[in-house]
Specification:
By secondary structure, the chain is α/β, with parallel strands linked by helices. Helices cover 31% and strands 20% of the residues. It contains 13 helices and 17 strands. A seven-stranded mixed beta sheet has the order 8-7-13-14-15-12-16. α1 runs parallel beside α13 and α5 runs antiparallel to α6. It binds flavin-adenine dinucleotide (FAD) and uridine-5'-diphosphate. Uridine-5'-diphosphate (UDP) binds next to α6 and α7. The site of uridine-5'-diphosphate has 13 residues, from α6 and α7. Belongs to the UDP-galactopyranose/dTDP-fucopyranose mutase family. Keywords: FAD, Flavoprotein, Isomerase. Its cofactor is FAD. GO terms for molecular function: flavin adenine dinucleotide binding; UDP-galactopyranose mutase activity.
Length: 399
C-alpha cells in the first residue's frame, strides 16, 4: 500500500513543502486524502486546505456535491439529480460557514399530500383537519382538543408507529404515515425507530411550513456552484470518477477522511449494513407549471412512488417548461438512507468499534456514521471532525 507507516493524525501537521507534481497532475504526497465530495468530504477538504494542508479529494461519481448535486437538464431547468434538497438549519455557525460559498434565496418549504382526490397540507395541521373532515376548528386550543380526542395512549413510544398513533390516532396515522413509510423503507412503521416519523411534526396551528428552522434558504446559484466555490482552493485537487479502492495503494497521504458507506470500508466483514435507495424518474413537461406545491407526497400505498417534486418551485427559476421527478424507493442502488432500527444500529456499532481504532482515518457523513442526517447536520459534524482532528494533531501550527 502507499500509505505511510506512521499514520497518526500528527503527521497532518507536518510543515507544507512545495509539492512534487507528477505529469499526471497529481502531487507525490498529500496531507489528506478525502473520499467523497458531498457535504462531509467537501467541508473537510475546504477546512484542511484553508489551514495549509494539501488535499486530494476523490469521488467515484462523475461530479462533486454528493447527493446534493444539481444541474440544468436538457431543457435548461435546474434539477436535483438525487431528489429535492431543501436547506434548513437552526445553527448560525453552519449557516455562516456555508454563506462564505454562496448567496441565498429565501425559501420556506411547503408540502401537500394527496389524499383521495384532494391535496391537503402536510405536516398535519389545523387546515389539514378542517379540509379532510369538513371541520371548523378555529383555534389552536380547539385543534389540540380534537387531536387529543383521537390520539391513542401508548405506554412507551418506541417505534415510528407509536409516535404518530400517540399524537393523532390510528386513522390519521393510516392516512398519512403507514403507506408512505412502508413504501419509503420497505418496512412497517412498527419496525422503525421513532426518530423516523418524528421528523414530521403535527401542529394545532395553521403553520403549514415543512420546517420551522431559523434559517431556511436555497443556494441562489445552486448547490453545485456552492461546492465549486468551496473547493476552489490551490490546496485542493479534485478527481471525479475515481474510486478509493482504485487509488488506495497509489496515493501517498498521511490522513484519510472517508465519507462512503462504513461497511464497505471494512469489506463488509460483519455483513452488509442496510441502506435504502431510490430510483428517480425525471421528466420535463412542455408547460409552465405542474402542481401547486414544490413537493406533493403520495401516502397511498397503491401508488408506487412516494413524492413528486417540481424543481422550479424550489429554485425560483423562470422557464416556459417545468421539470419534475418521481421517487421510487428500492433496496438496490446507490446508498441514500441509513435505516434506523435497533438491529442496524447494533451492526453499525460493530463497525464503529473498528473505526474508533483507526486513528489514521476520520469517518464523517451520513454513510460513514450511519446517521439519518440532513445537510446542515453533516456540515456541523464535518466542522466538528475537523476541529477534533487538528486539536489532536501534535503540532497545530498550521491552523
Ligand atoms: P453523500 O452526499 O452521499 O456523499 C458521499 C459521496 O461519497 C458520494 O458522492 C459517493 O459517490 C462518494 N463515495 C462513496 N464511496 C466512495 C468510494 N469508495 N470512492 C470514491 N467516492 C466514494 N438534507 C437536507 O438537509 N434537506 C433535504 O431536503 C434533503 N433531502 C434529501 C432527499 C433525498 C432523496 C436524499 C437521499 C437525501 C436528502 N437529504 C436532505 C440529505 C442529504 O442528501 C445528506 O445529508 C447529505 O448529502 C450527506 O452528505 P454526505 O457527504 O455525508 O454524503
Ligand atoms: N412520512 C410519512 N408521510 C409523509 C411524510 C413523511 O409517512 O407524508 C414519514 C416517512 O417514514 C418518511 C419520514 O416520515 O421517511 C421522514 O420524512 P421526511 O420528509 O423527513 O423524509 P426525507 O425528506 O428525509 O426523505
Amino acid at each position: 500500500g502507499g500509505r505511510r507507516e506512521s499514520q497518526s493524525a500528527s503527521a497532518l501537521a507536518a510543515a507544507p513543502e512545495a509539492p512534487f507534481i507528477r505529469p499526471s497532475g497529481r502531487a507525490s504526497h498529500y496531507d489528506a486524502l478525502v473520499v467523497g465530495a458531498g457535504f462531509a468530504g467537501s467541508v473537510m477538504a475546504e477546512r484542511l486546505a484553508s489551514s495549509g494542508r494539501r488535499v486530494l479529494l476523490i469521488d467515484r461519481r462523475s461530479h462533486i456535491g454528493g447527493n446534493a448535486y444539481d444541474e440544468p437538464d436538457a431543457a435548461g431547468v435546474l434539477v436535483h439529480r438525487y431528489g429535492p434538497h431543501i436547506f434548513h438549519t437552526n445553527s448560525a455557525d453552519v449557516f455562516d460557514y456555508l454563506s462564505r460559498f454562496t448567496p441565498w434565496r429565501p425559501y420556506e418549504h411547503r408540502v401537500l399530500a394527496r389524499v383521495g382526490d384532494r391535496l391537503v397540507p402536510m405536516p398535519i395541521n389545523r387546515t389539514t383537519l378542517n379540509l379532510l373532515y369538513g371541520l371548523d376548528l378555529r383555534s389552536d386550543e380547539q385543534a389540540e382538543a380534537y387531536l387529543a380526542s383521537r390520539a391513542e395512549p401508548v405506554d412507551k413510544v418506541v417505534t415510528s408507529e407509536d409516535v404518530v398513533i400517540s399524537a393523532v390516532g390510528r386513522e390519521l396515522y393510516e392516512t398519512f404515515f403507514r403507506g408512505y413509510t412502508r413504501k419509503q423503507w420497505g418496512l412497517d412503521p412498527s419496525q422503525l425507530d421513532r426518530s423516523v416519523t418524528a421528523r414530521v411534526p403535527t401542529r394545532a396551528s395553521t403553520d403549514d411550513r415543512y420546517f420551522t428552522d431559523a434559517f431556511q434558504a436555497m443556494p441562489l446559484n445552486g448547490y453545485t456552484r456552492m461546492f465549486e466555490n468551496m473547493l476552489d482552493h490551490p490546496g485542493i485537487r479534485v478527481e471525479t470518477n475515481v474510486d478509493f479502492r482504485d487509488v488506495e495503494a497509489e496515493v501517498v497521504y498521511d490522513h484519510l477522511v472517508f465519507t462512503g458507506p462504513i461497511d464497505e470500508f471494512f469489506d463488509h466483514c460483519y455483513g452488509r449494513l442496510p441502506y435504502r435507495s431510490l430510483q428517480f424518474r425525471h421528466e420535463t413537461l412542455q408547460q409552465e407549471t405542474f402542481q401547486p406545491a414544490a413537493v406533493v407526497n403520495y401516502p397511498d400505498e397503491t401508488v408506487p412512488y412516494t413524492r413528486v417534486t417540481e424543481y422550479k418551485r424550489l429554485t425560483g427559476q423562470q422557464h416556459p417548461c417545468t421539470s419534475i421527478s418521481y421517487e421510487y424507493p428500492c433496496d438496490e442502488g446507490d446508498p441514500y438512507y441509513p435505516v434506523p432500527r435497533p438491529e442496524n444500529q447494533a451492526l453499525f456499532k460493530q463497525y464503529e468499534a473498528l473505526a474508533l481504532a483507526r486513528h489514521d482515518v476520520s469517518f464523517v457523513g451520513r454513510l460513514a456514521t450511519y446517521r439519518y442526517y440532513n445537510m446542515d447536520q453533516v456540515t456541523g459534524q464535518s466542522l466538528a471532525a475537523f476541529r477534533r482532528l487538528t486539536r489532536t494533531s501534535a503540532v497545530s501550527g498550521l491552523t
